[in-house]
Amino acid sequence: MxxxxxxxxxxxxEELLQIIDLxxxxxKNPIKYKDIMSQKTLLMIFEKPSLRxxxxxxxxxxxxxxxxxxxxxxxxxxxxxETIADTAKxxxxxxxxxxxxxxxxxxxxxxxxHSEVPVIDALSDIAHPCQIIADLMTIKEKKGRLKGLKLAYxxxxxxxxxxxxxxxxxxxxxxxxxxTPQDEEELNQDILKxxxxxxxxxxxxxxxxxxxxxxxxxADIITTDTxxxxxxxxxxxxxxxxxxxxxxxxxxxxxxxxxxxxxxxCLPAKRDYEVTDEIVDGPQSVVFDxxxxxxxxxxxxxxxxxx
Length: 307
Ligand code: CP
Ligand code: NVA
What we know:
The chain is of the alpha/beta class. Helix content is 43%, strand content 14%.
């Protein structure tokens, strides 16, 4: 049966843990997987910019003996009016799997609905599942476990990475505390409620607070994301900077977390906005391991979906 990865909740918690373990095995012994995608092609449809996602997926396919095609909607019939349905029906006659970075997840869902092959959401308005699988792998590498840890997130909570973090942490039993100036009502209620019920099942919790210091207290992982996501209009910058600045991750905030806390960021970082240089480049930062792990986890996701 065709499987998509649009939200982390498309996976059972057990499958998510298996993918993280498989990623570890691939990282240790990539040669074992060198032909596993032989004769297979991944189509990568992009409506927004990317460094990590584009390059890591392409290299992932190369390392497994397959091929990846970069397809920018600016240079495609889809960008000038061909329907998503027709695009999906044609493309899935050629390729074995599609990943799409579209502005609206509703469009990625439409693509998946008409595609004969699996579709992966590679960042939309409300999800970034591949990022969070890499984040969980990184946490497991650094902390040796997942269950029972506390992750504190700062800044924009109405955000793709944050929504997928809520789901991912809940699925593996990590407590997530989100410090944000936004009211809970401003967030996507379906995702929040869904994640809360998953958390309950796995003995963890999701807390949303305006108190950054309280959120950082006893945290094992401190994380944030840009306040100016790719889809946010430039005119909003000034207002957002003012609103989110009290949630900047800097030395003062980091010092409230556990001594051995790690700092994570999906990148790209806007230095001196959501995080300072001293933190991104400091000894607790694991951001480049996290970026590397995008590749290993994507290899595992591709194997999980099409082998
Ligand atoms: N973290 C992430 O998805 O980065 P890119 O936007 O560079 O792909
Ligand atoms: N929230 C960010 C994530 C980038 C990987 C954005 O949407 O731009």
